[in-house]
Structures
1.
Amino acid sequence: MASRKSRQSPGYKCKHESALAKLINEHLAVLGWTQKDLAAAANMPESRLSRIMQGKKEKGNTVAVTELDIGQIALALKIGKTGRDKLRYAAWPELAYIDDALGSGEGVIALNSRLAENGLSPLGINNPKE
């Protein structure tokens, strides 16, 4: 007889919580909200928010977080553009480096060196994510 997998408790958090999930959970705690509350406020299916919160590295999780997801979550949390940018940087850390490079006039080659130094994939045709 196959054993049944136990259901997760409402307060379940994965062991390796992503930076994005951690940041969202901090906002939820301040508001006293659950993920269900956030999903409703963001007009987003609970299942999608749950997969976003689990992170990209969870087995069987194929959801790709989009800019629209981040926008919906930021609007629901009422955290403004700065808060939205923090969510973006948590989801895609390389964007913080790109924004810095745009502000300082840094080129792609120098930026790629900084990305590599920080364990992030470089920009361009040699990007292993493609």
2.
Amino acid sequence: WRNPFMEKYTSLSIPFFNPQVKDWKPEDAVIEAQHLAEDPIILFPVTNETYAGGSLAETGFSILQAVRLDDRREFVIMVSKDLSEELNDQVARKESLRARALVNEHLRKLRLPNVYLVDNLEEMLDISLRLYPTAVLREELSTFNPHNKAR
């Protein structure tokens, strides 16, 4: 799913961070955590191509922590409600579908103004592109806020 996003962002000169690396090292976790804590727009897609136990847990935990830390950032979340038919381990499938439903419902109940729930990757890309000018403007205006001078 990342390639169309990266191609579009590159064509528009929009900076982005791709957490997928060829040869993962422990220091990559530090870099990823820094981006999660500081980037103005965070995308969390959980596609139907995996059971996504870890991703679902990370999405819920990370969103709640990151939102509490800074509500001036935007979060675009997509959790596919279904799984690919190729994922046929019935126990893992049942647990994944349950977790997906719970994550989606809990996020809907939060009703946070900086959390956008989308149904598909096309909507995720569209929302991220529409949010980008706001993120740029917010960064420019932050120089006028005395609380941001330490940054």
